[in-house]
């Protein structure tokens, strides 16, 4: 048995031993969630569960902790924040504070803790063995080492501005020598036991817009004396859908969604203004800016055709999340070797600020199938405790793949 193979087997054995405590931690975190920007108690509890290491506080209510020796490290992300939802799962450990881990962040955090404790324990075991057998050739010693791990406890994944952006802009990854980032997210659209490890773009850019159409107010009975911004807005909403069906390349997934529309205060009056907000999303980096420009142009033209004026503001959010191809393929191979069912094709127009890390270093976001009928962000969403193991094993495979020379070069 080679040193590398022995090391990997030991990592998996120790990880299994950590899972019971991780599942208990998951329930504890689930019962006491904290909203974006208020994650302090969650951060404190997770740090207590982690092994001792070099801690750097980041992004207000986040932290990064380095486990292991010197040199290039692999980063793993755990999201600290919950959603403003009233939970209705009915389990004894349900949240009762008006917030809820309805996107699986409790599972992710527990899995990250299990991996960090595993790497810490195995590094200690191997160091003790190296000390006892001093004098053996250096190649064997190197094969027995584990790569340093940096735990990224990230705040504000569910809100804007994102915690990931703050971490990247602050240079925290460089300071802790993170050369690759790995993440895993529970995903109910996949069957339990299936892990998606897809190369290339897997999540869309996620930008918001606000459209304000100004017309001329008036009496509802005399529309010819007014310029109705409500009718203009209705036409804008319909016309915007043609951007997807007739302007966008049909091979490029694109979404234009109007989420809110507000106008007027009385049923018998034409208001002077209508305001709508929504989201623009695409899996194409190159089409993203062109989509913004074409959307704004179309809104102004349609409003103008109805005698109104339009103001369009686009608020850039998260970029396209692109998985490093080498890292994705290698991780998939490792997962298959361990008997996991791997899917290489899961892409969606959902957004994740994990994409911020991929702009700096090779990164991989995996999606882990869970057994639940409820969707993400539902008050009924509650993956089984076994999902902690599935996410932890996925992260371990990504960590091992990212430890290789082929993906350890900074962009």
UniProtKB/TrEMBL annotation:
Domain Peptidase M20 dimerisation: 208-304
Keywords noted in UniProt: Hydrolase, Manganese, Metal-binding
Protein residues bound to Mn(2+): 103, 105, 158, 185, 377
Cofactor(s) demanded: Mn(2+)
Molecular function, one GO term: N-acetyldiaminopimelate deacetylase activity
UniProt-listed InterPro entries: Amidohydrolase (IPR017439), Bact_exopeptidase_dim_dom (IPR036264), Peptidase_M20 (IPR002933), Peptidase_M20_dimer (IPR011650)
Cofactor mode of binding and number, as noted: The Mn(2+) ion enhances activity.
Coiled coil: none
The keyword Hydrolase belongs to this UniProt entry's keyword annotation: yes
Pfam families per UniProt: M20_dimer, Peptidase_M20
Protein name: N-acyl-L-amino acid amidohydrolase
Lineage, top ranks: Bacteria, Bacillati, Actinomycetota, Actinomycetes, Streptosporangiales
